[in-house]
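Bug report

Summary: structure tokens for Cupin domain-containing protein differ between web form and batch submission.
Environment: batch mode, default settings.
Steps: 1) Submit the sequence below via batch. 2) Compare with the web form result.

Sequence submitted:
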Amino acid sequence: MGTRQLQQQELEGLVGRFNQQKTVRERAQGMGVPFPDFVFDLLISRDLYTLVGNTAEPAPYLKPALQGPRGFSMVISKVEPGEGPGLHTHKSTTEIFVVLDGKFSIQCGDKGEHAVVLERFDSIVVPPDLMRRYQNVSDQTAHLLAIVTGGEDNLSELDYVPGVGQQIESKGSPQLRKALEGIGVRFTAGT
């Protein structure tokens, strides 16, 4: 009994070329989604590349480059110094961070009160239902690989602390917050 065979063209169809990827922000703006850059900074990181995941995401700009198994996604965040998304939790998924370059502070706890600094190729496994955020603590743009597994890997998994929603309202408007809530983003974690 032989193994599965494929043609070269099929093999090429299984490859995602990073240099051909657009960020979630670029794709959203190309589709006319009216979210300013600071919203991406607070929620997912301004330059987030969705490499592998479930193509059944509720928002088409989140569609990954490659279809992966259900409950699995892999993204790369390109993060400017001092930046990183707001404090949030994943309801039922585990998140694994691997630093590709630079240094990142991984903050956990209801107020982000526990932190560890990771350097190149260091990793951490953050279990479900634990508050977390990451922040580039180096003096240069840095890259972080995030792998999310288990549960549902989509917006319904995320819940941000109310302060993130309040920042969006103060920098944008209540309508902007309502638009985000309309696509499944929640700001109730830790309440």
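Above is the batch result. After comparison, the two runs are identical; trailing whitespace caused the diff. The mean pLDDT is 89. The first strand starts at residue 47 and ends at 53.
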